[in-house]
Amino acid sequence: MSDPVFPRLALIGIGLIGASIALAACRSGAAGHVAIHSRTAKTLERAEELGLGDSYHADPADAVKDADCVILCIPVGASGTATEAIARHLKPGSTISDVGSVKASVIAQMALHLPADVHLVPAHPVAGTEYSGPDAGFAALFDNRWCILTPPPEADPAAVARLVDFWSRLGANVETMTAEHHDLVLAITSHVPHLIAYNIVGTAADLETVTQSEVMKFSAGGFRDFTRIAASDPTMWRDIFLNNREAVLEMLGRFSEDLTALQRLIRYGEGDKLYDLFARTREIRRGIIAAGQAIEAADLDRPHGKDDDEAG
Amino acid sequence: MSDPVFPRLALIGIGLIGASIALAACRSGAAGHVAIHSRTAKTLERAEELGLGDSYHADPADAVKDADCVILCIPVGASGTATEAIARHLKPGSTISDVGSVKASVIAQMALHLPADVHLVPAHPVAGTEYSGPDAGFAALFDNRWCILTPPPEADPAAVARLVDFWSRLGANVETMTAEHHDLVLAITSHVPHLIAYNIVGTAADLETVTQSEVMKFSAGGFRDFTRIAASDPTMWRDIFLNNREAVLEMLGRFSEDLTALQRLIRYGEGDKLYDLFARTREIRRGIIAAGQAIEAADLDRPHGKDDDEAG
């Protein structure tokens, strides 16, 4: 095992992502000492029971002391407050990063409090599950997943290179882009999909013509996938929508416009145009499979090993 | 193995569902002789190569001759034409059924042509994959899935009981409801979810600010699930939307109304209300898991065995 990228790593927040970083850093030796803080006493205690790190700190200032890298692993709406609490205690020359699904807003919140001698290199590992809390973490979460870094133009190249190295050793493929572009890309690949999943599950729950028990029973027809997405952490997702408002509203506007056009095709029975759209979207799935982000055989719960919930 | 429910079964159409019925009927002994028709010579040939049945017929009239049960396994828009082609050749006292994802329209199309001495018992197995064609079929497709029967009020109870028996032996759990109620239930649990999956994949493909390659690369954030749904058979789905128009438009109207309200919450930063919705939808996922239609550990492509594509 090669030397740790960061002899001392501090994790502020120890939910699904924080716990997975701790486990993956331990597995790979990418960090030496791992110091953990959670503002919730019970969570911190649980992290210690699980043996996720090397030291556990109720005070975030203690956790970040002498750390070569500090990573905020908290809902994006808490970035400013958390940074303020640790800013004065950060080691000169150290790196501070995060794992937020929104970047421009998080950078603005954090930069406000940071001293000039600390390197801010924001990151977003595009990985997760619908589970939350320290028990949900696992070392393989980032394997072969993308981690997007959004360093500001003035970022120190050496600090960026160290964080690239760190995430690579955690198993991720690293990509760099601007914060603004990240927020647009994620709005369409993640935020709007989550929003419409939350929305349809809510619509179904409110129906008076179809019972909730029927919705649950016959969910294998497609709805089931949406419920899984709509089971993700409510606080995290509230913060994402509030902090990536412009990009989400822009993509949502396009989605709604397209949906209205599609609705009209159905109303007027335009079969050929429906067919053309459905054939086109099939090609995109093929592209994703080719890009290696999805595999064809994927379900443990079916003997055939094929995805099984696409029926009408 | 007990006696076959149907000594002679005819399958009109041998795509994913037809082929799976053939294989499941063979596995369970629920049918004796299985006669297969496809209007596409190549598909019929492939079915024979795969050994899916006992006889293969280019003429549907030959396939249904002496059959105790005939099942249409074709896109719902073709139900009328297919029924017309076989109606005069059906055995008196035999059962005719289908597997369509829409019921009221299919019943109307079929009933028009059927002689009075044949029992019409429509069925919809809520199972499938995003693959199509005879090669996609597998015997376990219906195991522990729901099959919904929608017999008309005047249907012969003995004929209905035989079809319940048949589908049970194919592995399915059978439920009975009216065609109209079926169409409403499926509109929300399947048709609208498919429509919005098709729609967002289309929206993403048309963006000029985010490249298709970026959409594909970062699809693990949630979009990936939608592409799988949007890869389903275009002809089948075109027909579903055209034939369940009223229920789909009704459910889609509610979905859009709710989405507009959600969009407004984001625009005005109403965090508490967003949180409440997201917490509520999480409960529905728990209900579905409890109902046994989804399991918590479901992905072969992740060592941890957890769903893995929920990240922001």
TrEMBL record, chains A, B:
Keyword vocabulary terms for this entry: Amino-acid biosynthesis, Aromatic amino acid biosynthesis, NAD, Oxidoreductase, Tyrosine biosynthesis
EC identifiers of the protein: 1.3.1.12
Domain of life: Bacteria
Biological processes annotated in GO: tyrosine biosynthetic process
InterPro entries: 6-PGluconate_DH-like_C_sf, NAD(P)-bd_dom_sf, PDH_C, PDH_N, Preph/Arog_dehydrog, Prephen_DH
Catalytically driven reaction(s): prephenate + NAD(+) = 3-(4-hydroxyphenyl)pyruvate + CO2 + NADH
Residues spanning the membrane: none
Signal sequence extent: none
Recorded metabolic or biological pathway in which this protein acts: Amino-acid biosynthesis; L-tyrosine biosynthesis; (4-hydroxyphenyl)pyruvate from prephenate (NAD(+) route): step 1/1
Prephenate/arogenate dehydrogenase domain segment(s): 7-296
Gene3D superfamilies given in the database record: 6-phosphogluconate dehydrogenase C-terminal like domain, NAD(P)-binding Rossmann-like Domain
GO molecular function: NAD+ binding; prephenate dehydrogenase (NAD+) activity; prephenate dehydrogenase (NADP+) activity
Record family assignment: Belongs to the prephenate/arogenate dehydrogenase family.
NCBIfam families to which the protein is assigned, alphabetical: PRK07502.1
Name the record gives this protein: prephenate dehydrogenase
